[in-house]
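pinned: reference chain
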Amino acid sequence: MLQDYLPIFFQILVAIGFAAVTLTLSVVLGRSGRNNKTKDTAYECGMVPIGEGAPRFSVKFYLVAMLFVIFDIEVVFMYPWAVQFRDLVAHSPVALVSMAGFAGILAFAYVYALKKGALNWKS
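pinned: its C-alpha cells
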C-alpha cells in the first residue's frame, strides 16, 4: 500500500528540495551583485524612461476580461456534457434539466451585464 505512494512522495520531496535550493542560491548569489543608480533604473528598450511606467487601463477592460472568463468557463463545462448528451439524456432527463438551469443562470447574467452597460465601451 505504502509503496504505491512512494513515487508521489518522492516527487513532492524533489519539488520541495528544488524550491529550497533555488531560493537559497538566489539569496546567496544575489548578495554578490552590486547595485548602482544605472542598474536600478527602468530599462525601456534603450530609451531614457520619461513619464509614468505604464498607461492606466479603464475598469471596463478588466470587467470585460472577467466576463469573458466566466462565459469561457461555461463552454468548458458544456463541452463534455454535449459530447455525452445522448447517454446522459437516455438514462435520465435530470442532466438536461440541470444544464438548462446552468445555461439559464448564465443567460440571465449575460442580460444583466448588457442592461448594466458592462459591455459598452463608450460609457
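why pinned: Helices lie at 6-30, 37-40, 59-83, 85-91, 94-116. The radius of gyration is 26 Å.
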